[in-house]
Design brief:
alpha+beta, eight-stranded antiparallel beta sheet, 12 strands, about 20% strand
């Protein structure tokens, strides 16, 4: 019998994140969401920060505008709502699915080429309607199918293999890696696999905000500016009709916004200001309140009380509002 004790491997210290949101029920604070946040001034300098925004994170789908710019750098011809869809985490609404099919058809491909995992629509209402009509999970329904369709179209346009388009060494992913590093101004320090199966590049929140700023301010006609213009003109294609990114881009002209899984959010304004944050525990319910508070701190207003709509995160008791998730700064 082996009585030797198992060695204890010391864990690295936990970064000193900040409380970004509080969960207040019936006047009692029953929980808190910690994380990190950074706001860039119009000249690109750090104006305000909480937590540890200079440590690398996986931005998840907040990387998509950079990935969309990357495919344009390879020479792919895509603009308008279809380019916005290439940068999207779509809700699975009918116009999203039609757009994905158009991108694929333009490259002579069908839905069978997609390597997204079979999913139901991201939007709960769309998912319920799909199931009610007898539908089942399909690759095209996955919220990243627009990005995947654009990557596949890029492969066809350049004569690259379509079967291996998700491998890190594939030319389409190497271009994505180069573009993320160039726009963020950082070297990617970690690479993982995103929920959709594509390579995922880690940068800091400061680097993410810097990348969004570069896209928002890019010269007309450049790949980055084409992505920004497509997102601004077609925000419903970037998200959906019932989504925070859409409300923000409709309410703040010139803004570009993209959420990511695990409660990541990045925004850039057309005057050069930008922000990025991540809720450490991935609690998406805190994203809207934190986003609205950060924009208000920046002195940003929005048409039609879009910030109030974004900030709303009520808590219910007995079917009635009894509290809220609210920003703590």
């Amino acid at each position: 019998m082996n009585t030797q004790a198992t060695p204890v491997i010391p864990r690295p210290p936990v970064p000193d994140t900040a409380v970004l949101a509080e969960v207040v029920r019936s006047g009692f604070t029953e929980g808190r969401h910690r994380g990190s946040l950074v706001v860039l001034a119009a000249d690109g300098s750090v104006e305000f920060a909480l937590g540890v925004p200079d440590l690398p994170v996986f931005p998840r789908s907040s990387n998509k505008p950079m990935q969309a710019a990357a495919i344009l750098h390879t020479g792919l011809r895509l603009d308008g709502e279809l380019l916005a869809l290439a940068a999207a985490s779509h809700s699975g609404e009918s116009f999203h699915l039609d757009g994905v099919r158009k991108i694929l058809a333009g490259a002579g491909l069908t839905e069978q080429a997609l390597q997204t995992p079979p999913s139901l629509p991201l939007d709960p209402a769309e998912s319920e309607a799909w199931i009610r009509c007898g539908g089942h999970p399909e690759p095209i329904l996955m919220d990243c199918s627009g990005k995947h369709a654009a990557m596949l179209a890029t492969c066809v346009a350049n004569g690259w293999d379509t079967g291996s388009y998700l491998e890190l060494e594939h030319p389409v992913q190497q271009q994505a890696l180069a573009t993320v590093q160039q726009l963020s101004g950082e070297r990617v320090t970690a690479i993982g696999t995103d929920g959709c199966g594509a390579p995922l590049m880690a940068v800091s929140l400061t680097g993410l905000a810097r990348a969004f700023r570069a896209i928002a301010l890019a010269d007309p006609g450049t790949p980055e500016r084409r992505v920004a213009d497509a997102m601004r003109a077609h925000p419903e294609y970037v998200a959906g009709t019932r989504r925070i990114d859409t409300w923000l881009m409709r309410g703040i002209p010139g803004a570009i916004a993209k959420m990511g899984a695990e409660a990541v959010q990045a925004v850039a304004l057309d005057d050069g200001r930008a922000l990025a944050f991540k809720i450490e525990d991935g609690g998406y319910r805190a994203v809207g309140p934190v986003l609205a508070a950060a924009l208000r701190r920046m002195g940003v207003g929005a048409a039609g009380d879009a910030l109030g709509r974004i900030a709303s995160a009520p808590l219910y008791g007995g079917g009635h509002p009894v509290g809220e998730v609210r920003a703590a700064f």
